[in-house]
Each structure stands twice: as structure tokens, then as C-alpha cells.
Amino acid sequence: MSERLKKIFESSNPKTKLVSYFVGCYPDYKTCLELIKEAIDNGVSIIECGYPTSEASAEGPVIKKAHDKVLENGDTIKDIIKLVSEIRNYNNDVGIVMMGYIANLYKYPITKFVSDINKAGADACLVVDAPHELKEENILREELNKTGLSLIKLVAPTTDDNRLQDIVKLSSGFLYQVNVSGVTGVKSANQTDVESFVKRIQNLTKIPICSGFGIKSPEDAIKIAKTGCQGVIVGSAFVKYIQDNLTDKDLPLNLGKYIKSFTKELN
Amino acid sequence: MKKNSLKTGPDDLGYYGEGEKAMGGMAVGETLMPALHELNDGFEDAIKDKDFLDEFAYYCKHYIGRPSPLYFAENLTKKLGGAKILFKQEHLNHTGSHKITNSLFQILLAKRMGKSHLICESGAGQHYSATAAVAAKFNMPLVGVMGDIDVARVNQNIIKAKHYGAKLKTVPGTLKEAITDAIKTWTTNPEYAYICGSVVSSSPFPKIVAFAQSIIGREIREQSMSQEGKIPDMICGCVGGGSNFAGAIYEFLDEPSVTKIGVEAHETAALTNGTPGIMQGMKTYMLQTDDGAKSLGGMSLGAGITYFSVGPLHSYLKDQGAVKYSSATDKEMLEAYKIIAQTEGICSALEPMAAAAEIIFRQAKDKPKDYIICLSLCGRGEKDLDTIQEHIGKDFE
User: Which of A76, A128, A178 sits opposite B293 (nearest CB)?
Assistant: First the structure.
């Protein structure tokens, strides 16, 4: 269990945390670092730092394009871990979650991965395609526990109460509540559905809930914040902003302003 | 089944084998996990239901035309002058390949489970056209996902599927990209049934597809016993994901006296050149970068065997030393096609010509005349005629 994540959710400021997803080293190492620094300066509580894989099975077109670009540039998960250590040097309070797929971790291999991200200053890890049925998830969870880091688990609208109970027991840090069935950045979240899902989870656990998928604007974020979750997760909207403004010389600064339009509504 | 049987796997979580070397498993996002458990329960329940199995058997016979013949390839046998070669004529099934048996099984299962919509992926389009045919028969809407490179080279299957009423979603790439996108499409519609075309992807698909296709091996045993008075000494089949070959050998897994050889495309020979990794829902041998970030592999003329990975059952059987795996080049496949067309008057698909090449160039000649080799001819060649014409058309003039 990550102490830093615990502290973040114990604090009442901001009331609803903004969790923002970046594809590590996108569009390149240096720019990505500047973008994330701006995100931190503009009130993001937790950075999800994505590492790419070519067969990512849950990414919509926006994030897939960013993954492909990083792979094409030749940046690897090791470069992204180095990026994490620079983010940590810049700020000691922000939560950092490594996010991606089991393909890379299996090859790393897992034990060394956990040790390396711990050294770099990450707080947690989220693996999209590693349900608790998978042997490698069990190995990863045990390693993270031993190291004092968190494994962030996902729950989806299709997850029934029995399964939810099992997952809650294995979660630490926060629970990633997936709002819609689908890939990232396509469908929109429905406030009523999210609200009843949040209630369903809160009946079972006190672990903080961060709600993600289908949050595309500050207005969406405000609506989702009202459902009772502790954090809202924005991924594709920020990645798309970066993608659409690659030629902007002041991209980091302007992304910061865009992020501020979310965080100022969540205080 | 015996305790030490190679047929006992996979376990409840989809693993073939134990410990760190176990292959398979369930590596998919949470959204699909409940659907996969539901499918596993639905499958385990259905195969205990005699009426369901009778219905499957009925349509296997009357709709597909099973059993497919086990044919003595006399001219080829004479030409090679060694082992006696039998063709398991899966290409004579309705829609022209082994794929339809699996499509039929899974669609009957989907119907039994109350599903109304279907998704499938395809490489050579054989699985797409087969699934489209059965979907039309049972009046269920289907969306198929294929790579644009394959759509261009196997056009006949696309046209047929369209006539059966199926929709097609095209993604850049080949079978690999189609599989990844089919999983995304299913994640977006988890209430649909995903009709997986091979012994690949997350558990329980490898188990379900192997179950459906294992009818091939049971037919081989019965036909070989009645025609030859013994079972084959060797069974050879091509391997992309590996469903036709898994189906042909499953019956004989506990009989080491039967030599089994699976043949991949040279450019995507995961079992010869790959290492274990986890992608597309399963742990198995695959071609990928050392850091696991990127799938690799080139292009083969056989669209259905252009696949960087392979079903986990095959990885397990390789590690157990129970089955041999090799590979064949485009040139060998085309040469084998020519020999089989000219000796037996059979226009085969290119994929099984990988296995034919192994038999013709490396296995049959030095064997005695009473040594029986069974070659799985798992698809017909109409879909490949343009490709074949382009490469060796002049050889026939």
C-alpha cells in the first residue's frame, strides 16, 4: 500500500482529485516531461504514466496513435521509468501510477520492474489486462505489497457484486472504476449509471474510487465528481489535446491551462 | 481421462501445464472477464447436454457434410516413392475449410446461452465466411473484423460472407490486428458472443475451439482403422493459431507412437523462433521485441498462417516434447501446391501447403511403404488463386 496515495486521499484538498493519464515519452521524452510538470503545477493529484504495447486491447484510436508513436520513436518502458524518476525529482507529493499491459512486465521481468519503479519513485501500478485470474497478476501483486506499493485494480459495469467483492479485497491505493464498456476515449459516461455504480462499490468498501472512461470535458468532470467518487480520471481528452496541438510551441503551457479548466471545477 | 494425459488440460484458469511454464490463462481487461466466465460455464454445461451434442452432430453431418473423407493420395504416394499418404479432406466441408465446424459449435453454444449478436475475426477469411454462413442459417447478425491486407487477397470469402448477410469491419494489417480489434469490439459490446476462429486468445477459447475441432482426429481414427486397419504413423498439419492441427492430433495426444508435426509459416514461426510472452489474452510462444512491447513477424503467402503467435496448447505440447513443430517458406508452399494440383487434381489453399511441403520435401520419401502419413488439407484454394497465378501462373502454361 502506497503511503503517498493514502495521504493524497486523506487530504480534503482538492475535494475531488484529478487523475490524468499520459502516454510516457509522448510525443517525445523531453516534451512529455514538460507536459507532466505543467499538469502537476495545474493541480493534477495523480499522474498515470502509460507505457505502450503494440497489441493494447483497451485503447481507442487516440491513445493507440500515441502508443504507436512512442514505439516508432524507439522509447521503451525503461525510458518511461527514467521519466518517472524525473517527475518524482520535480515533485514529491504527486501520485504516480505506471499503467499499461502485462506483455512488457512479463518480459522485464516483474520482480525487477517493481524494484525499478520503486527506485524511480512510482507509487503504484495498473495493468489493464491482468485480472486476478492471471498468474502474473498474483506475482505482481505480491511484489508490490512487499515493496509498499499499490496495485490499482479495475472494476467495470459488467463486474457483478460477487466479483466486485473479490476485487475490492485485492485492491489498494484506489479503485479504478470503468464507467462504460468499451475502449478508451469513445463512449461518453452517463452520470446516473456512474452514480449507481459508485453506490454499489461504496456498499462494499471504503477504498477511494476514481472514475474513468468517457470524461471528455470539465462539464463531464463536474457531473462525475457529483456521483460520490473521490477522483475523476481523464485520459484520451488530454492525449487528444496534445495530439491536436503538436506544432504549438507553447504546448506544455497551454495544456496546463486546459488542465486548469478541469481542476478549478473540482476544488 | 488418465491423470497423466495430455488431454486433461487446461485447468480452471485456462492453463496448460503447471508452474512457470504453464501456457494460456486469461489476460484480458476486466470488462470481458465476466463474459469469459459466463462462456466457460455455458460451455461446460452444454457439453454435458446430450441434446446439444446431438444437435451439433446433426448439423455436422447434414449442413457441413461431415465426416470429411480420408483419401488415399495414390499418385502423390507413387511420385514420392515412400510413405503412404492420406489426405484428411477438410477442404470438402461446406464453406471450404475446417473452420465451419468450430463456427457451428460456437454459434449453437451462443444460441443456447441466449446470445443474439455475433463478432468474429479472420485472417484468410475462411473463418469469416464460415461463421457468416452459420450465422445466416441461425439468423444471427454478425460483424467480422479483418486486416485490409487480407481483405485484398482473399476477396472471394469477403463476397460470400456479404451474400450471407454479414458486416465487415476492416482494420489496417493482417490477422494479428484483426484479433486485437475483435477484442476491442467485444469489449464495446460484451453482451455479444465472440466466435473466436482458432485455439488462441484468452481461456476458455483455446479449450472450446479444440473441443469443436477434435472431431477431425476422431474421424481420422475411425476412417484409418476401417480403411487401413491401423491408425496413422504420422499426422501433419499447418499451424497459424493452430485449430485444424489441434483438431487433427487431439485424439492421439496420448499415443506417442503417432508422430505429430505442426508446420508454421517461415516468416511467423512462433514455435521455432519465438519465446514465451503474453499478448492477445494468452501466454504462449510468440515473436516480439525483447522488451515485450511490440509484436513482430513478416508476411507469408498463407494469410491464415501469417500469425506472430500461436495457441497455448501448441506451446505446451512443444515444451512437453509431444509434438514437433517446423516451418515452410512461400517457395516451398507454392511448389507443394503445384505438385498436389498436378498429381491429385486438388486445388488446395496455400496454408495447408506448408504441411504438404514438410511431407513432400522432408518426411515421406525415406519412409517404408506401410508407413501412413495423414496430411490435414484444411482449406480449398479458390481464395488464393490470384496469389498463386501471380507467383507461379507461368509454370502451368
Answer: A76
